[in-house]
Amino acid sequence: MREIKLYFKYLRLNFLTGLQYKGWPIMVLQVLIVVISDPLGLILLFSRFGSIGVWSVEKILLIYAMAVTSCGLAETFCRGFDCFPWRMIRSGDFDRVLLRPSSLFVQVAGSYFHIHRLSRVISGISAVVWCLWKLGIQPTMLNIIIILLALIGGFLAYTGVFIMTSGLAFFTIQGLDWIYIFTNASYQVTRIPMDYMPKVLRNLFTFFMPMLVISYYPASAVCGWGESYFKAFCALPAGLLFFIFSTFIWNFGVRHYKSTGS
After folding, report:
1. Tens digit of pLDDT for each residue in 11-50?
2. Do residues 127 and 61 make contact, with C-beta atoms less than 8 angstroms apart?
3. What is the distance between the alpha carbons of residues 210 and 170, in angstroms, rounded to a whole number?
4. What is the pTM of this model?
5. Interatomic CA distance for residues 173 and 258, integer angstroms
6. Phi, psi (5° rounding) for residue 55?
7. 3-class SS of residue 236
8. Residue 197 main-chain phi, psi, to 5 deg
9. Can you tell me the distance from the alpha carbon of 38 to that of 123, in angstroms, rounded to the nearest whole number?
């Protein structure tokens, strides 16, 4: 309980610090415009050529929005791990963190907070609600639970990617750009209809980084596209397993840490 209170205290301090910058509303608007305009090409493509088989623009956007929301939640509440290689490893600031009598995980997770990252979460949730409404899906208790569990599982999965990057940074000193294929690049893959997605991508984002498990399968179960509710409920445990796997890499890196500070 003490560590949880400390984490939210970190977030509160970083939030208030961000509000001191007078241009923060512009930053929020900037991210909102980027998030909204990102799938614009997809929308224009479907409006010009119509549906691709059974895949309409609302179906694709629903899967895409769930992945974007999950990524946005991880960026908002665990941004510290995303910035860890540059802010703590290369600068040597992690040495000071090690001296404090508090959880390393909490200190790193709450060390950085971007208020404008909330735009991704808000726009993503709005898109999910809009797509479900356009598809005529009833907001039953079961459907709401599946969506919420999928977002929690997605949050854990994307946070796991940030933690994995931080764990590897103990050995590489700086972040590895290729690993970001599992964050920003991963939710771009959801714009490909599942029936036309290359098998290698389906396997990669299902059995390693469970991005499709936390986006496609819950959406398919809720909307009645043929996937079972059992697969939909796998979103949370899949995200949790990937999160746990990432923490093993993080803890291994911590045990082999060597200071890079002056």
Report:
1. 777 777 767 777 667 777 777 777 777 777 777 777 777 7
2. yes
3. 25
4. 0.88
5. 10
6. -95, 115
7. helix
8. -80, 130
9. 12
